[in-house]
Specification:
alpha/beta, 5 domains, 20 helices, 14 strands
Length: 506
């Protein structure tokens, strides 16, 4: 795609606009565990395309499919209760371990929807079981059974895997006896009834051995992913749908979907695109392994920063999130710097679609420091001169939680330090300077008196917070207030210096 700012989104939007008729932008997830930042890609990228289309005068239908019928193939780390019994059953048949929804699948679909709303994304959400119960897949299943040899040949060719000679699994029946969906195989279809045997061993679940039949109209079945995907794209009239880069590799499911559209359904496939993985400290995020739970990240990072993180590099590149305190604060500071002065067009594009709040009036670190000084939010607002409460929950989470790096933890306590350089520095300031101007003045005073700058800064930290280092001195000064520092410190230093043996360097 073009390397210009936002090239991928404009390219996609322009391609969609060339397609006649109502435009449908689609995406989907399997609701197999807690939402993570990789899940956000599934709904955020298509939402950005939808927004761009609206800016171009279009009115797309943005739909999001929740696959609550996929097989439950692993118990996510940290889940309540004993869920191992339900392995192999549809997610919609697995109980909600938290007891607030009818099923495991519905619980985590709703969790994803809640996160969508936090990020300002509002698609039309459709649980896939609704589409099955409405009979939307029925005629397509009949087509696949009728052209079984062609479908099998496509699957083998595009997946690069050989299927058993007796393969007929264009659908996955739900066993009437044990409720498994992962372990059944189709043995026949007579135009009305699907015959099956529940005798497969898929590693995480074993079949019960039952043999039976179900009417196709019972909808107690689901298509395997490689057939489900092109089928719903066809009956929903999808114009554009992307997916992770793993689906677009050789042997990936997009090759299958494209071939099914063209060779079986006799239609053009939707426009597609791919995105890179979101990595957490170099590891791919995982619902089943509990890696990268979004509920933790959003406590500390506002939604516009997360959206900026996803958009700041090309869509097809992997995006690595350092979720340490240092890493997240560095991300927030980068966001703030570009909010003030975007350094390149791509950053402007990222900021535009991250929809930043107008509450970013002062540096986030300054809020963290000021809150530690005041210990109440209203006092913090007054100290830094803001009116918005938007960032309050994030500031409180940082200060009261365990993410804040120790260097940013402060306790303002002016103390005796027999260092004339600090008296000289503060005496040279009128109290109206910014933290940056004050710290620059300290550099000048140190140089004029042949004192190492590092030593001068260490002395300033020691006087203000009782240790030789801390957050950026300019931020610390802004948070405390230069006039307050002069009032609290300079008088005491004058007394100490006059009564000590050390003479002021002035």
């Amino acid at each position: 795609m073009a390397d210009n700012a936002g090239g991928w989104i404009d390219d996609l939007a322009s391609s969609v606009m060339k397609v006649k008729g109502k435009h449908v932008i689609a995406s989907a997830i399997t609701t197999s565990g807690p939402t993570h930042l990789g899940t956000v890609e599934e709904f955020f990228f298509p939402s950005v395309v939808s927004e761009r289309l609206k800016e171009m005068g279009d009115d797309p239908d943005f739909i999001f499919i929740g696959d609550v019928m996929d097989a439950f193939d692993s118990v996510p780390a940290g889940q309540k209760g004993d869920l191992a019994y339900y392995l192999g059953k549809p997610l919609i048949s697995v109980p909600d371990p938290y007891g607030c929804h009818k099923s495991f699948g519905e619980h985590f679909l709703q969790e994803t929807v809640d996160f969508m709303h936090k990020l300002g994304v509002s698609p039309r959400v459709i649980p896939v079981n609704k589409l099955y119960s409405e009979g939307q897949y029925d005629e397509y299943a009949k087509i696949f059974f009728t052209r079984l040899d062609d479908v099998k040949q496509i699957l083998e060719r595009t997946s690069l895997k050989k299927l058993p000679p007796s393969w007929k699994d264009v659908i996955m029946p739900i066993c009437e006896k044990c409720g498994n969906i992962a372990t059944t195989r189709v043995t026949g279809f007579d135009g009305e009834y699907v015959y099956y045997a529940d005798d497969k061993d898929v590693g995480y679940a074993k079949g019960c051995g039952h043999q039976g039949k179900i009417p196709l109209s019972s909808h107690q079945w689901k298509m395997p992913w490689r057939l489900d995907w092109p089928t719903r794209q066809a009956f929903l009239g999808v114009t554009l749908e992307g997916a992770g880069k793993d689906h677009h590799t050789k042997g990936g499911s997009w090759d299958t979907a494209e071939a099914i559209h063209r060779e079986i359904l006799n239609r053009d496939p939707p426009i597609t695109y791919r995105w890179g993985f979101v990595l957490l400290n170099g590891k791919k995020m995982s619902k089943s392994q509990g890696i990268g739970s979004l509920s933790t990240i959003v406590k500390y990072v506002p939604p516009e920063v997360l959206k900026y993180f996803l958009l700041r590099v090309d869509i097809e590149k992997d995006k690595n999130l350092d979720d340490s305190g240092e890493g997240l604060l560095k991300l927030i500071e980068e966001f703030e710097e570009n909010l003030k002065r975007p350094r390149d067009p791509k950053k402007q594009f990222a900021l535009h679609f991250s929809s930043p709040s107008d509450a970013w009036e002062v540096p986030f670190v300054s809020l963290l420091l000021a809150y530690q000084i005041e210990r109440i939010w209203e006092g913090t607002k007054k100290r830094v001169g803001i009116k918005s409460d938007y960032l309050r929950p994030y500031v409180e989470a940082w200060v009261n939680g365990d993410k804040l790096p120790e260097i940013y933890r402060i306790n303002y306590r002016p103390s005796k330090q027999n260092e004339g350089i600090i008296y000289t520095w503060l005496s040279a300031l009128n109290g109206t300077e910014s933290g940056f101007q004050a710290s620059q003045k300290l550099r000048e005073v140190a140089q004029q008196n042949s004192i190492q700058i590092e030593s001068a800064f260490s002395q300033a930290y020691a006087v203000l917070i009782g240790r030789p280092n801390g957050p950026r001195l300019s931020s610390l000064i802004d948070a405390i207030g230069l006039l307050r520092i002069k009032n609290d410190v300079i008088g005491r230093l004058r007394t100490w210096l006059e009564t000590d043996t050390l003479t002021c360097v002035c």
